[in-house]
Here is the input.
Amino acid sequence: MNQMTDFSSDQSQPMLRVDNLSHRVSLETDTLTILQGVNLEINRGESVAIVGRSGSGKTTLLGLLAGLDTPSEGTVELDGAVISHLSEDERARLRARRVGFVFQSFQLLPAMTALENVMLPLELAGIDAPEKRARDLLERVGLGERLNHTPRQLSGGEQQRVAIARAFASEPSVLFADEPTGNLDNRTGQAVSDLLMALNREQGTTLVMVTHDEQLAARCGRQFTIESGVLTEPAAVREMAD
Amino acid sequence: MAAASKLMSVRRDWRERDVRVVLAALIIAVATVATIALFAGQLQRTLVSSASSFLAADRQLEAENGREIPGEWLTEAHARGLETGRMVEFSTMVFGADNFQLVSVKAVSNEYPLRGEIEVQRQSEGPRTLVGAGPGRGEVWINPRLLRLLDLTIGESLEVGNRNLKVTGLLIREPDGGFRLSALAPRVMMHADDVPSTGVIQEGSRVEYVYLFAGSETALDDYYRWLQPQLEPSQEWEGVRDGDTFSRSLERAERFLLLGGSLAVLLAAVAVAVASRQYALSQRDTVALLKTLGVRSNGIGRLYLRRLALWGIAGAVAGLFVAVPLFWGLTRMLSELLERPVELYLDPMALAPALLTAVVSLFAFAYPPIRRLRNVPAMRVLRSQPGETGREAIPDILVAIVAVFGLVWLYAGELGLVLALLGGLLLLLGVLALFGWLLVSGLRRVRGGGNAWRLALVGLYRHRRASMSQIAVFAMTLMLAATLVLVRTSLLDDWQAQLPDDAPNHFLINISPDSVESVASFWSERGHDLDQLYPMVRGRLTELNGLPVKEAVSKDERINALNRELNLTWMSSLPADNEIVEGAWFTPGQDRGVSVEAELAGRLGLAIGDRLTFTIGSQKVTESVTSIRTVQWDSMKPNFYMAFPPGGGLTDMPATWITSFYLPEEGKPGLNEFSRQFPTISVLEIDHIIARIQQIVQQVTQAIEAILALILAAALVVMAAVVSATLRDRQREGALLRTLGGQQSLLVRSTMLEFVLLGGFAGLLGVTAAEAAVWALQFGMFDGNFGWHWQVVLPIPVISAVVLALFGRWQLGPVLSVSPMLLLRRLE
Ligand SMILES: Nc1ncnc2c1ncn2[C@@H]1O[C@H](COP(=O)(O)OP(=O)(O)OP(=O)(O)O)[C@@H](O)[C@H]1O
Ligand SMILES: [Mg+2]
Here is the structure.
């Protein structure tokens, strides 16, 4: 493994620290504010659920937290590194080593088989024996029989499980999941939730997920609500009110 | 149905990228094929008229028998809308102030020349001008050398027979300054109507009447069909195409255009095929959706057919709108090259192949995949079954390929061409299949890493189906382009070889045996060495295996060589540019036998051992054929149909000697002295003819290069279309690789490497297939000698690798500049 930039984590620091984050996009006529004044701190090993209505800005927030985009205002500090201070390549390196992402729309490469899709991040990170690891992961999400099928040949839920396996592959220290059980039936959804929670427990992976699944949200350590780009933590509010 | 129709409105169509690509491909296809077809037609007409000026007409009727042709033949020609003219050619003595000289007179009617122009100089130091008619009555124009020989000046008079004709100009060049051995002595041009009053022509004089004809090709052909049965053996109908001197060069140029056009058809078909197939595949979801909405299979079929037809029309119309101005521009360029106005000639028939190509490739490649989807249940369309390989498309594609090659056949009318290209293509696909197998079995083991090379190889393997079809299309495109480059190169090389700068440009004819040595030393003293000297005996071929030759040869073969006296020779060694195709050349000491030129032998149906009888003067000589050899007629050297061995059948026959040599402009004054010292030897100056041939070759070269450029541009467009067909997939992949932590530099390097491999390999494959196709073409079409041309074609794989790499890099641009999140959202 070639350690190019030192991202060695200071265990006492929080995994994620968001300070006064706002995000705007300029449209043809005016600017649209998607996120506004978001403050957030997530510690290592925590599991966090974000809930909110469609279009409220959940995916946007997740992308900013994962360093897939840079905010218009405010800072995101991921594992001690301020994302907007990093170059694109440094961000990429950070993602390769520390971050896993499960996209709402899976984002599998249609030309590749399930196995190849899962191997991709391993190959990029230069991890040894990628094939064996990818195979294990796919077996773990119940797709041991479908290794050589392409996404087009898989159902929506199956594709989602491939996406989860891919996110786990590089053993990230933080995993972002955008509605990981959105397309799954109860049983499979349950299995995937179990998987996520197990990972969080066994490997200490920090878990940040967007979900509509109340059961899954309830299994997380903390829950946030987002409404029109404003993030609140109802439980904390309630605590404060108490 | 209403909902479905709405879904398919044309306006919506245009917003779809795939549709725009299909339409762009259609427009380019129609535009290139139509432009090339139009321009080829134009060029052919221009060249033929350029070449016609060599005859001063479109056709000549030569009467060597010293009699004029019946008047009704000319009346008939006029009735058929042909223009005619008349020339009388004879040799006579003319007298100047105090000297006399044997000259060759050409007396021309008012109409001469029907094609081309005469170059004259009116004053001894004045400018040279091009004029469209010969001298008037009572005037003569004479060769400048004759002026010096006779010590005349312009304005003085020249005595021709009983007449005194005024010298009013120097004849610099006549359009039909032909390559005829009868025109040996210095030229005098006069008016045909003055001939009777000179009294030179009497019963038994050796005179040649030449009639000129010009008009449309069909009228000329019809007229010849009418005339042919009435022609006597000594009357010969000659067209540009029958001439030896350079019609071959012209024929090759025409074939090149034909080839260029055919390749344009193929390229266009590839472009439309790639685009429309891509489109058809992208329509799977829509078709499925339509089915779930309750549209029936037939309805879907009709819908798409209607849609394709609509695009076909739109693409064709737009393509023609592009083609016509392009054609106009090229024609303008041509007329600038030729330094004379070129009449615009727009043949509507030339548009047919363009439209057919577009329609055939559109329907042949776009419709079958849709038709197949029609019969598939909606669910299966949405989720393709495991194990679907794309193999089911192979029969459709084969049918389409046959259709497209059928088009080429229709266009070129040459089965050989189609087979050569098809052969090259099959070879290409064969190698590609082999490569595919190697790719699958070899690259499977490669596992990617942070290394760009491995990532590139893995990329090739993972996208093997797309890679293979891209390589196939690139290789095919490059093969077509390389074929054209190769043919052009060998065409130009051939011409260059035929007419090098020091090609012989003067002939010495009628050298008596005892002056051979003094002639050679005359010129070598002046630093000009003569080429090989050949003896020449004039005789007719009269019998074949004891039968009169006219009976022995089938009636429908019109063989000029039999109608006139042939130049026979003897020689001990085979000229360097001749080649034995059958039998064996004379061994030293052999004194029997005759070697026959291959084409004549073919037409007479001669085989080794056939007995030929020649009538030479009053004697007969019979020899059997011992060898058949090819001759380079356009080499500008003495060439002979019949060659005997030294000491063979021609011994003791009255012979004179002939030779050719290169005399540069500054050596010209030596000719005067030569003529005084050897008055009986004829000097044939062909330097003007050579200059004109070189000029025409240059024009043709330019035209060929213009067409080549057009085709290469089309090839580039095809390749761009193919690459951009996968643009979305590649961008999505790039975006995803970035979200997964791939660094930009890695992405750039691996993408460029992948394209370098793709382009380089496709280039090599295409060039190899092109060499194979050219090998076949040169056998069949250009009768040249095949040699490898690596130095010419090797840049092609390199260029294609570099261009594709840059193209790949350019495509990656948006993936690198935007944040991954935004990219994924956009590509959703
Ligand atoms: N680049 C952009 N340009 C324009 N609008 C954008 C852009 N990015 C996000 N938006 C808008 O911002 C809002 C929030 O988007 P986001 O995808 O974050 O919603 P979400 O909460 O994930 O919704 P869902 O639950 O439906 O996935 C949406 O209205 C979306 O259309
Ligand atoms: Mg979302």
In short: The first helix of chain A runs from residue 58 to 65.
